[in-house]
Write a structure and sequence with these properties.
The chain contains ten helices and seven strands. By secondary structure, the protein is of the alpha/beta class. The chain has a seven-stranded mixed β-sheet with strand order 4-3-2-1-5-6-7, sandwiched between helices. A hairpin with a 6-residue loop joins strand 3 and strand 4. Helix 3 runs parallel beside helix 5 and helix 8 crosses helix 10. The longest helix has 19 residues. The radius of gyration is 18 Å and the shape is globular.
């Protein structure tokens, strides 16, 4: 049975480069096969994931993360895909394990996945009614079809859209994430929304609040923090290394620079980005006061 927990690191060395980061291939405790029933927010969180996995020297033969995207989609849209029998396509964003990725959703689910990550449409993610009306049915589909009876079902918590809406949305996002763990068979939360809010409370913040359009994360720092959170939440526990200290920069491409508010990740801000993710995974539902000293 797969086990996911928060990485525990001593306060003396948690923000230093570990030996595993310095040249040796890192093996996971066991293979990890992840399927994401996602939307554009899962694209944001996985855009740089492979870069982090590569920099951390994770053995990719033990790993795969497949991301399915319905733009503007949520629980109801994936239910409709399943019921209609439509062919769906999942992109492998990292790892080299090959899984069936273009087929009816029921057949894609009917494989030996270790984790399935769900996302709600961000415009409904802070409204509990949207969970009550559709999440039970989606969970029933996933559990009935997935080959692995011990599959971990995870939920990726989104971020508030912008400076004007964030306090209300973030509070609702947290409350809904807390509640689904109590009322539904979801045992794992990926707190991307908390990590982004951590970053917004530091010098990493931008005029567009780490977005390029008030919704989607900016290239560079925004997407990097999200990918760090995914890494820390699902890969670190099996690799026994934290995202903190991995020497993975991301210098913006010409295309990425064209998006408003995008900022490269380099040696001047890399560690702070990683700390934002680390603290979010350590305290899933709380914005980190510790980072205020890092502005």
């Amino acid at each position: 049975m797969m086990c996911i927990s928060v990485v525990s690191c001593s306060s003396d060395n948690v923000f230093e480069e570990t030996e595993d980061h310095k040249g040796y291939e890192v093996f996971l405790d066991h293979d990890l096969r992840v399927l994401i029933l996602g939307n554009s927010y899962s694209v944001d969180a996985t855009t740089y994931l492979d870069e982090l996995v590569t920099a951390a020297k994770i053995n990719k033969k033990q790993l795969c993360v497949y991301n399915g995207v319905i733009n503007g989609g949520g629980f109801e849209d994936w239910i409709n895909k399943y019921q209609s029998g439509a062919i769906v396509n999942f992109d492998r964003v990292t790892g080299s394990i090959q899984m069936e990725n273009k087929q009816k959703l029921g057949k894609i689910l009917k494989q030996n996945w270790d984790m399935i990550i769900l996302l709600q449409y961000s415009g409904k993610s802070y409204e509990w009614d949207s969970f009550e009306t559709s999440l039970p049915q989606l969970l029933e589909i996933v559990k009935s079809e997935c080959l692995n009876s011990n599959v971990i079902i995870s939920y990726q918590m989104p971020w508030g859209h912008n400076v004007n809406s964030t306090p209300r949305e973030l509070k609702g996002n947290v409350e809904c994430a807390r509640r689904i763990m109590k009322e539904f068979d979801i045992t794992h939360i990926i707190p991307v929304g908390i990590a982004i809010q951590n970053a917004r409370n530091t010098s990493l913040n931008t005029d567009m609040y780490l977005t390029w359009d008030n919704w989607h994360l900016c290239y560079g720092v925004g997407k990097y923090v999200a990918a760090c959170t995914l890494f820390e939440s699902i890969i670190s526990p099996l690799a026994h290394i934290s995202i903190v200290g991995i020497k993975a920069d991301h210098i913006l491409s010409k295309k990425e620079i064209s998006y408003d508010g995008s900022v490269s990740v380099d040696e001047t801000n890399r560690l702070l980005c990683q700390k934002c993710a680390f603290y979010a995974v350590r305290d899933t539902f709380f914005v980190a006061d510790e980072l205020l000293s890092s502005k």
